[in-house]
Design a protein that fits this description.
3-stranded antiparallel sheet; 8% strand; mainly alpha; disordered N terminus; 64% helix; globular
Length: 169
């Protein structure tokens, strides 16, 4: 935490402790464990990383199954370089292709192919089952609602950005 942020709450101790530490360490553990579990399932069952699945998801939900690379990078809070590497891997498997944006030639589009759509559809049931098992089924309906609100608050505090479609933001 920067000095300015620390000074904005002078009565707070400089280190997390008590309820703050318990809350943060629980979330930090989820942030470490959940991506690894999701990645392992997708790699095993669909030969995709969770990041690649997210790219396929965004393209599958986009109009005409295509988006500007810069928009995809914004969804993933990713650098264009990381996104480009992922799209290159997807292109190599025939799941995506790039094209110049007809509306503005300065932009590159990523487009989902029919094979990519099929791969996304094939990967989704296993991924969905794991998300339900690890997150949704572990919570009551009220807790799921609270988690949505909490996620929106954290995303808002994290600053401007364009989260994945369907996040409610």
């Amino acid at each position: 935490m920067g000095e300015a942020a620390h000074n904005s709450h002078p009565s707070r101790p400089p280190h997390l402790q008590g309820e703050e530490l318990t809350t943060w360490s629980g979330l930090a553990t989820v942030l470490e464990w959940l991506p690894a579990l999701l990645d392992a399932q997708l790699r095993r069952d669909a030969d995709l990383t969770h990041f690649e699945y997210g790219v396929l998801f965004a393209l599958a939900k986009a109009p005409e199954r295509r988006l500007r690379m810069s928009v995809l990078a914004g969804y993933a809070n990713s650098s264009l370089t990381r996104l480009s590497r992922a799209v290159t891997r997807l292109e190599g498997r025939g799941y995506a292709e790039r094209a110049v944006d007809d509306d503005d030639g300065r932009y590159t589009l990523a487009q989902l192919t029919d094979a990519g759509s099929a791969a996304f559809e094939a990967a989704t049931p296993g991924h969905t089952a794991l998300v339900r098992q690890l997150v949704l089924d572990a919570l009551t309906e009220e807790q799921r609602s609270q988690l949505r609100e909490i996620s929106e608050s954290i995303l808002a505090a994290a600053g401007p950005g364009t989260p994945w479609p369907g996040t409610g933001r």
